[in-house]
Amino acid sequence: MRRPSGPSPHADPGYAALKVRIIARTGHHYYADKDDLLFDRLRRRFKACNVADAAAYDARLDDGAGEWAALEAEITIGETFFFRYAEQFAALRETILPGLVAARGTERTLRVWSAGCSTGAEPYSVAILLHQLLGPALPDWRVSVVGTDISIAALATARAAEFGRWALRTLPVEERVRYFHRVPASPGATREGGYALRPEFRRMVRFERQNLMSLLDGSMPEGFDGFDLILCRNVLIYFSAETVAGIVRALGRRLRPGGWLLIGHAEPHPAFAGWLEAVNLPGTVAYRRPPESAPASQPETRGEPPPSSPLVEASSFEFRPAADMLLEASGASAVAEIVRPAPSAKAAAPIDPAPAVVMTPDLVAEDVALAVRALADAGDTGAAWRLLRDALAVRPTDPALRLYEGLLALGFGREAEAERAFRGALYLDRGYVMAHYHLGLLLGSLGRTADARRALDNAVALSQALPPDAPLPEGDGACAGEIALSAAAIRDGIGTGAA
Q1: Rounded Cα gap, residues 246 and 213, in angstroms
Q2: In the chain, N or C: fewer CB atoms in 10 Å?
Q3: Dist CA 418 CA 431 (whole Å)
């Protein structure tokens, strides 16, 4: 993978010191070995603040909390969509929430915290489940769902409760209609209209700005405890192993007896069972505070975990979903070898170690594309990216894999990399309709009107040359006629806006 376009961070004398300061302040150990990605995001703040380099921006950070908030929002990847991680929402629907409703049936109270909620899809998804589960009895319950995030912009979007199609991509049409109402695009807009969450779900959730690091320094406000369910998914990946240990202990103490904690697929570790009970559910692992006992009393610091359960980097668990999905989609013959290291004798919970996937030249690219798509739709974008990079190392000239490279890069906020990937797909296949289409959408969002219109013109012309009901590769089930109409409408909207 090529480095993002632009100057090297190491050419900026003040970058190293700024990086150390940022990681120390935010706990975002995720960027310890990702200098190009961090510097690419820093340059956006340089431009916004009209400063020339890292040293000048370092001085700007001394002005107060405002710029720190903007920076934290910039370096946090906000990928989210409704019912992300299908296996975990199945566990919520079938096991966790019904159990909590039965256990709290006498008092009729439920408290849920979505920590690191981004633009709100996660807490709203839980609200929808609770609405379905409680049904006519809902008015008799005191249900509190709170979403917290460090990004002021993300929270503003969450409170508005209006989402694009990408955030609803795993929902069948009938569920979109049931939970949302359509909001048409404004005149001259380059994007399609959105979907507004219906009021009965929206009013169940409130949002606050909070930083998980406040769990460790004692600044978390009173009232953030006594939860029946905490979701802290795809947040722990940013922190060092030591910080993760302190956060998980602190979250466990904020659960009521019998309460549940859900974290991302890539984040579990056997050491967590020193504080919470690890429960294997179909497709996922959840953590539970024992019903009749409190977690062991430990200070909320970044102290070392118990000696019997040494922590390793949580990201070492990320390959398991990729391997499992690849085997499901394409069969064992698509993989040369699945290597499963022997479990550690010190493991405190029955969590399988992560296998490594070794790609071979006879790998079926279409099957890998399906696996990547399934992982991304389930919310495991990290595993999808790793699987895709492994596949591209074996089949670098496959246009479908290049298209997915662009779509995943967009999900990570890496527009330059996405553009290169879409253009790479078109270099390999000039007739690839969806590559022209997605390139046009991207260029339009970047304000590059002429280039966007050219790409969308190509999508229209190529689609119209096909039978209207012909399905398009990687078209999400859309036929050629539908894509031709959509691309033409977006292209004409760009033209109207430019005029």
Answers
A1: 9
A2: C
A3: 19
- DSSP labels, 146-209: EEEES-HHHHHHHHHTEE-GGGGTTS-HHHHHHHEEEEPPPTT-SS--EEEEPHHHHTTEEEEE
Q: Enter the tokens of residue 432.
A: 């690839």
Rounded distance between C-alpha atoms, residue 289 and residue 252, angstroms: 7
Residues 6+ apart with CB under 8 A from 24: none
Assess contact for 319 and 383: CB atoms under 8 A: yes
pLDDT tens-digit series, residues 304-350: 333 333 222 222 222 223 323 333 333 322 222 222 223 333 333 33
Distance CA(43)–CA(45), nearest Å, equals 5
Q: How far apart are CA 187 and CA 484, in angstroms?
A: 20
Q: What is the pTM of this model?
A: 0.55
Query: What is the number of alpha carbons within 13 Å of residue 492 lying toward its C-beta?
Result: 9
Given a contact cutoff of 8 angstroms between Cβ atoms, the answer to whether 114 and 122 are in contact is yes
* CA within 13 Å, CB half, 161: 21
CA distance 395 to 389: 10
Q: List pLDDT tens digits, range 225-242.
A: 999 999 998 788 777 778
DSSP-assigned beta bridge partners for residue 111: 144
Whether the CB-CB separation of 98 and 135 falls below 8 Å is answered with: no
Round to whole Å and give the CA distance between 280 and 349: 9
Strands, DSSP E only, in 83-133? 109-115
Question: At CA 80, angle to CA 73 and CA 453, rounded to 5?
Answer: 85
Give me the count of residues in the chain: 499
Quick one: tokens of 285?
A: 């692992």
Distance CA 16, CA 165 (A): 39
Residues 384 and 412: their CA atoms lie apart, in Å, by 12
Integer Cα distance of 282 and 114 in angstroms = 22
Element of type H or E holding 87: helix 86-91
Other CB atoms within a 10 A radius of the CB of residue 193 amount to 14
- 288's CB contacts (< 8 A; 6+ apart) are 258, 259, 260, 261, 276, 277, 279
What amino acid is encoded at 280 in this protein?
Answer: N
Q: How many CA atoms lie within 13 A of 224 on its CB side?
A: 22
| CA–CA distance, 54 with 37 (Å, rounded to integer) | 15
62: Cβ contacts below 8 Å, ≥ 6 apart = none
